[in-house]
């Protein structure tokens, strides 16, 4: 996919983390130890995930997953990590919907024990469509599945979004409203502009990202609709599946009140991102899976809400993803893993598809 080395995902010492985690756990569950502490091979570059078992005669659960805010000294991907907000979101979704989320166990807001705040939840057994190598590549379990199995997974996943948006009253999620002026969509985009300004502070800006922001304004929806609780990082790589059935929805750090289409655009484009990488490498990928027209039609049948202005929302998803990728690339440069090219737009892996969206030609193909 790229000749650059895979970005490092942590600057922390695993043995030191294990020792400190055991000390913290023992204070809450006397005599307990954290056993078999590991980090998944696909550990993210924002919050880190640790997996461990509780060695205790009567543990509350046998296996846990710990989400640890990024080390603030490690050129973080996002400017802040509000673990209490994530924890509260998980509890809210569990209490108001039948969307499956892991059972929450502990929230630690004191950075002292592990160097940053963290939350602990029950680990849910299952499998996740991989990012590396992408699930669209030959050899992944999802690529090897039958058309009927992928159809079931797609339907069940779109159903997650439909139920989340329909079942959870927005009035219960006021803490997820973004600051600023205007409606929920304007605030969402304003927050992304602020994030982009933070990413390029003291560094070269991206003309492509700035052109995409300009294109958004020209495509701005006349009627954004009432906001709902959006998952934020709504993609199948953040779902644990038992077979082809969702059993846990993960990664709620980007949750916010926003129009429904913010989640739909992210789901559609993030799949297309992997599909474009796959066809670019000469493989066929999964061209019939999570197609934009199918996702939109299925969501409309489930909710009675016909998605609107999806050119805007898929462009917005590609733009948001580009800002994250630019930050990751600058992070790699910070650690000496890559050199910054003369054209910063080339640091964005999907710069070709984003440019086509800005030009209004992407969905023609």
Textual characterization of the structure:
The chain has nine helices and nine strands. The protein has a five-stranded antiparallel sheet, with helices on both faces. Strand 7 (239-242) and strand 8 form a beta hairpin. The longest helix is centred in the C-terminal third of the chain and has 25 residues, at 310-334. With 365 residues, the chain is α+β, with helices and mostly antiparallel strands.
Count of individual helical segments: 9
Beta-strand content estimate:
5-15%
Computed structural class: alpha+beta
Report the principal-axis shape: globular
Unreliable parts: none
**CA-CA gap between termini:** 21 Å
Helical percentage: 40-55%
By DSSP, the count of extended strands is 9
* Major sheet description: 5 strands, antiparallel
Helix and strand pattern: HEEEHEEHHHEEEEHHHH
Strands ordered across the widest β-sheet: 1-2-3-5-4
Cα-based radius of gyration, to the nearest Å: 20 Å
Mean pLDDT: 93
